Amino acid sequence: MPVPDWILCAFIFAFGCCIGSFLNVVIYRLPRDKSLIMPPSACPACDKHIRFYDNIPLVSWLLLGRKCRHCKAPISPRYFIVELLTGSLFVGLFLLYYRTDVRPSVGSLADGRLLVYLLHVILLGAFIAASAIDLEYWVIPLSICWLVTGAGLIASTLGVYVIDPDIIQGDQLLPWSSAGPAALAIGAAVGLGVSWILIRTGLIKRSYEAAQAVDLQDTAKENAQTGRDEPSESVDPADPQFNHRMEACREILFILPIAAGAAAAYWIASKIVSVDIWDNFHTQHPAISGLLGSLFGYFVGCATVWAVRILGTLGFGKEAMGLGDVHLMGAAGAVIGPLPVVVAFFIAPFFGLAWAGCQMFFKKIRQIPYGPFLSLGILTVMILNDWILNRIALLFYR
User: What's the distance, Cα to Cα, between the start and end of the chain in Å?
Assistant: First the structure.
């Protein structure tokens, strides 16, 4: 006997709210460099441990009247909002995938396609946390992006043992590579390794090291009473005289081995690998095709944002977009694939324009970082993936 939809949705919503409760821990502790596991949750004002009955998602915040039980300090509405948003997105995505025709390629709980939903809610949960941190601190923790990237690489590699590889490729459920993208991904990965070696050996320098120097100086000033020496010299990137174009050139030097490796691998593959050879290879080793497809999506996502960042910095003389945005889109590319992540990048500005319109209407001016807009663009592409890919196919194959 099938489980009624209302019970299933209630369970998914409750599960999503519990995940949202954990995301609140991530949002609070990760920027403060605290452990996500220990110590147990406590009130930031009085440091009293929060009992389990005061830590029930949504319910406790309402029953406590938005205040700590012990010291009566106000509890931020962010806790309630994140829990509600996470639960709503989890159940909403389930209904859209499995109870509507919005994305028919995923619309079956048979054939192991539930893996796609699970992977997508991991991405959504992580990007909710990343967006909340970005809104407050104007920074995206790279550890969140690496988690999503790892999930995308693992799911794309092992997904062939859960879903028939022909279904994955035909319905584009997970990233998948043909010969050309596979060669580009391998070459780019080798080039990335070379770039990191050059960084570690000091042959090339990281961009915006001056910003790290400023952070160190601020920390030293706050702890001056301990007798710690302050850094003698540092340059503030906010200074109008700071040379942002030089920092962009450093990033170009980092990217050059990646681009060269990708180009060299593609040239070699085009000379020695035929379509028949690759078809036989990915038939026998579909997990490799999934892994390289996800890896190619990662590099495409990073490259799309990084190109805009470098060109914008060179053109306007100030930092354009952040490196966190680069990693965010790279992580998304590892999950949803190269073409959808590029489409998501070009959808994101429309959310930015909508925000600007609301600002003008309410006559308020509050700048917010770009990470939340990118996340909304990714969510849109995830939901409308089939429709978007069909329109692109019609555009090129008329």
Answer: 46
